């Protein structure tokens, strides 16, 4: 996986001892707890929808499949835009990081 960082970001995230950068931990922590809260918030309505009528289990399954497919849209868009940028020979002052 290849990430691009601007020179300023690269200077602030460099670690010589191999630890996770402390500056980005609050963002990661917030995203983790927000996604867990959203999953917990949607759990009860999905269970009630599932029990509501005979075809509801199929509807819930289709909804969950739709959410799973929708979660791939943004990474696919990023991948396509990076490929287009690379094909055009676009250069930036960003530093490429291979993860």
Automatic annotation (TrEMBL):
InterPro entries: SLC43A3. The chain crosses the membrane at residues 20-42, 62-80. It comes from the Eukaryota. Keywords: Membrane, Transmembrane, Transmembrane helix. The keyword Transmembrane applies. The keyword Transmembrane applies. PANTHER family: EQUILIBRATIVE NUCLEOBASE TRANSPORTER 1, SOLUTE CARRIER FAMILY 43 MEMBER 3-RELATED. This is Uncharacterized protein. It comes from Mya arenaria. The lineage of its organism: Eukaryota, Metazoa, Spiralia, Lophotrochozoa, Mollusca.
């Amino acid at each position: 996986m290849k990430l691009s960082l601007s020179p300023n970001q690269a200077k602030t995230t460099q670690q010589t001892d191999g630890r996770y950068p402390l500056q980005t931990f609050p963002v990661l922590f917030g995203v983790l707890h927000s996604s867990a809260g959203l999953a917990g918030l949607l759990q009860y309505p999905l269970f009630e929808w599932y029990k509501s009528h005979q075809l509801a289990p199929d509807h819930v399954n289709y909804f969950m499949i739709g959410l799973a497919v929708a979660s791939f849209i943004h990474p696919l868009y990023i991948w396509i835009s990076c490929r287009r940028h690379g094909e055009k020979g676009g250069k930036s002052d960003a530093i490429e990081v291979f993860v």
